Amino acid sequence: MRRFVPVIVVALLATVPLWLGDPYILNAFITTGIFTIAAMSLNLLLGYTGQLSLGHVAFFGIGAYVSALTALGFDVELFDGFHVVHEPWPVIYGFILAIVIAGLCGYLVGKLSFRVRGAYFVIVTISFAEVVRLVALNWVELTQGPLALTNIPPVTLGLPGIGYANLYGKTGNYYLVLGVGVIAYVVIKHLVQSRIGRAMIALKENESLALSVGINVTRYLVLAAIVSAAIAGAAGSLYAHYLRIIDPDIFLFLYTVTMVIMVITGGKGTLAGPVVGGALFGAIPVIVRSFAAPEVQWILYGAFMIAIIFVLPQGIVPAIERWFAPRPSKKQLVASQSSVSAE
Amino acid sequence: MMKFKLLAGAAAFAVLAGTAVAQESIKIGVNEPLTGPFAASGTYVTNGARIAADEINAKGGVLGKKLELVIEDNKSNPTEAAAVTEKLVTRDKVPVIMGAWGSSLTLASMPKLMEYQVPMLVETSSSGKITTSGNPYIFRISPPSSVEAAAFKPMVPKMTIKKVDFLVINNDWGRGAAEDFGKMLKGENIQVGLVETMDQSAQDMSAQLAKIKASDADTLMVTTAVEQLTLVLKQAAALGMKKQIITTGGSQNPDQLIAQAGSAANGTIHLATFAPWQPDSTPNPQAAKYFIGEWKKRGFDFPGVTESFRGYDGIRTIAAAIEKAGKPEPEAIRAAFWNVDVKGLNGDIKFQKQGPSGKESGQSVPNVYLIKIDDGKVVVPTM
Amino acid sequence: MSEFLQHIANTLILGGTYALLGIGLTLIFGIMRVVNFTHGELYTFGAYFVFLISSVLGLNFLLALPVAIIAGLVLGALIELLLLRPMRGADIDTTMLVMIGAMIVMQNSEQLVWGGVAKSVSTPFPETPLVIGPVSVSYLRVFVLVMALLLIAATYVLINRTKLGKAMRATFQDRDTAALMGVNVRAIYTATFAIGSSLAAAAGALLGPAYVISPHMGDIASLKAFAIVILGGLGNITGAAIGGFILALAEELGAGYVSSGYRDAMGFLIIIAVLLIKPTGLFARAERIG
Questions:
Q1: What pLDDT, on a 0 to 100 scale, did the predictor assign at position A168?
Q2: Which of A80, A342, B369, C233 could form a disulfide with C281 if both were Cys (CB 3.0 to 4.6 A apart)?
Q3: Residue B260 and residue C115: Cβ atoms within 8 Å?
Q4: Distance from CA of C266 to the nearest CA of B (A)
Q5: How far is CA B205 from the centre of its chain?
């Protein structure tokens, strides 16, 4: 029964645009969905290898910039008189390039920063995100810096010869985000349930032991970083083409925090965790906005974050699993429970 | 301290009360940064907007109905700014919006305006892209740097400037100012030297200033918000810099500079868009006096007026457009914006067409004043 | 040449404040393994405290510093007791998230209480600068530098010459052995966090009057402090102090001779460079893995 839970959740989510008449809430679903995909990618690092990256927004932002620039084109003078000119390409190439280049950055950052662990790793990743932000801010010729990239085209689906469909509307974007989300989920699921995933978990549990039984720790960590960064890049690309303007604010530390909250409150190292956490922290700002003053909204947000960690330090999904674990007959309840919270 | 708690409470109440009186009122969406790094400015503009709405309602409202501001916080964050625009249009059904202070916040809201075909009055953002990207739902009352530079041009020959260095905030506003003023000055045969930037959250600019101090320029033009400007003036004085300092941007506030930078502010020259120190010499003395009086009566800090007046002018312009449209509907209001002629606090607000033809945005050209701080007082030099 | 000398003078002035920001964080970092995201908020807290005492209550500016230090101690101890003690034994990321939550709450509470408009504090120091040859600095900043150096020296003495310091060092080296030897590790943690917090508040109290005070002043302070701590090595007071001066020098020369746009990138570029050369920081002892 348990393995049908994701299918039921996706089926339920697929019906949302059919009955939800409120575009504001649908917009919240889409942006939350995008950040949930980013959170899922972070979970691969944080949950399965135990490395907390607080610079994850860098890959998200790189994906957004690569995708937007591919679609918009640019003309950059690299050194005296040598120009790199790029004509606008269809958005779908931007999406693919975003994944590839973000993954490549994941490789480089992984190679560099996995020399350290713990608190050092955290600060190194924050530094990386800051450097990337400052490059986006100051390399005005390429990124337009603070002047922002505007008029980014929306995602176009279709094949040459058959025709294209522009996804200006929310419903189209919703299904696109849902589709990418499902693919990301399946990729991560297969990865963590493979031999590679077991090696990752082994090194999270006990790195020295993993080393001693011949697991090439750095290789697996870097692999996780590549996949994680690539998925974050895909999420960034979705963001750029949905919001249709990006500027260096995309590297806001708050966005990383949002992803980390989603992973940890949902339950790191569980496949459903980021989805549950994403739903929760996508909903909270919408709910508190309806009754609290601006500063109070933030105070409630922060307080809720602390409270949920105190009550459920392992996250929501492991807590639900533990609650139902000794009573296998009630497994169906797990299904309804997690599908409710995943909405 | 209490004041802000009350304000926050009032804002919460206004949001709650909003749904109850929906039928008898005309709603105007206000999309401003009330938390995050731009909170101070967004709050000023929102307070200015409140004064305008209360004034209009006291006189019977618009089309016989009361104006109701639906104020939302965009958290100084572009994603939120877009979400707020979406909410205001689809949830609160506002026919017109004012916003969103920062350029990136406004730019993020613009695709939503196209999607729902709702007009937005832009009160502060300065990026040139806002009016030139072909969004016919945009009407801006704040001057982009090019307009400000053009207004400064006739004053240049009367001043002694040979070579200028720039120190600007590293965002669209600062970079735009350095570019537009630089271009204008070169046209006047004035040399342009260094162009240095400072991060918008930076507190220590002494490295940039030490470099500028050592340059051979006689004038330094600074563009940034008042808080950072205070620091620039203090730190320039600490370095013993003897150059003529001119600030641009219009939201800097000489009163605050005098209060916070002390003698470091002496001798500095400022391009301002509203001169509340001499309400009689503003284009609309009566409104200026009313606004300043009301601002003080409500216990807000006086220095806030040079920022908040744009919220006041913005709401009055929107009200005029609704009146002209004859009905609170987005398309009618959009069309009516082209015909408004409001006596704003810093000149007539009339929209000129800008951007690609067929889908032009509106841009109003406000007055620009040159003021000087002498001996801790603001003077308007006669030229 | 005179420009270069001015940059060096600026480096000394700025480096002192960076060093002060760094040592509080490195203490907590080194001994408790907590990345203290509230560091910047305690810095802001100290700055508003000076504003409260000298501008709102009208008391002497010089009185504000010791009061802010004590207030920082109390607030730090409270945070440790309420938020960190229940989290002991939890993962580094869970603890970090609690600290980020506390940061969000503190920052917005500051805005709720004081409003978003920046405050400034007037000081008894003359506004005309101190001029020595080609170099010019403000008296206030010289005062700040002297006080910062005194506080750093006091912290050094506390760690290396007192019984409490000995217990803290023992906890840093090996928590379990220290506990076995009768060190009250829980009390040491509370003391460490309180001292680190009071150093942040002191930095805010000193720098608030030199800059302007706003609810967001802590963001950039936190980032700089992180960079300094990595430079100096976790838990290394001397390293953090030197790291502060190195960061200031890199920023000054970077902005002066390279590009001011990348001024704030200098610290992070140094971190990345340090990692490539010596992953445990320039002055660090060996870091255990995990």
A1: 61
A2: C233
A3: no
A4: 13
A5: 24
Of C83, C91, C275, the CB nearest to A124: C275
Range of the domain at A302: 2-342
- B321-to-B198, B341, C188 alpha-carbon distances in Å: 39, 9, 66
What angle do helix axes B78-90 and B103-116 make, rounded to 10 degrees?
30
Q: Which of B101, B206, B220, B305 to mutate to test the interface with C (most CBs of C within 10 A)?
A: B206
Residues of chain C with Cβ-Cβ distance to A138 below 8 Å are 259, 261-262
CB neighbour list of residue A332: distance below 8 Å, 6 or more residues apart: A1
User: Which of A146, A151, A252 is the closest to B77 by Cβ?
Assistant: A252
The pLDDT value given to residue B186? 92
- Within 8 A of A309 by CB-CB distance, chain C residues are 87, 94, 97-98, 101
Q: Note whether C101 contacts A264, CB cutoff 8 Å.
A: no
Locate the DSSP E strands across chain B: 25-32, 66-73, 97-99, 120-122, 138-140, 163-169, 191-198, 219-223, 244-250, 269-272, 342-344, 347-349, 352-354, 361-363, 369-374, 377-379
| Distance set, CA B23 to CA A319, B17, B68, B87, B89 (Å) | 47, 12, 11, 18, 16
Backbone φ, ψ for residue C205 (5° rounding): -65, -35
Give the domains, in start order, of chain C with CATH numbers.
2-277 (1.10.3470)
User: B64 vs chain C: nearest CA distance in angstroms?
Assistant: 36
**What total number of domains does chain A contain?**
1
Range in A331-335, B94-98, C218-222 the model is least confident about: A331-335
Minimum-distance CB partner of A299 among C108, C219, C264: C108
Q: Where are the alpha helices (H) located in B59-215, listed in sequence order?
A: 78-90, 103-116, 129-132, 145-152, 172-187, 206-213
Output the pLDDT for position B11.
45
Delineate the domains of chain B, giving CATH numbers in brackets. Answer: 2-143+284-363 (3.40.50.2300), 147-272 (3.40.50.2300)
Q: Which residue in C102, C230, C267 is closest to A306 by CB distance?
A: C102
Contact flag C107-A137 (C-beta cutoff 8 Å): no
pLDDT value of position A327: 56
pLDDT tens-digit profile of B183-229?
999 998 899 998 999 888 888 888 899 899 989 999 999 998 877 88
Contact A134 C112 (CB under 8 A): no
> What is chain B's mean pLDDT, rounded?
85
User: Contact, B222 vs B235, CB < 8 A?
Assistant: no
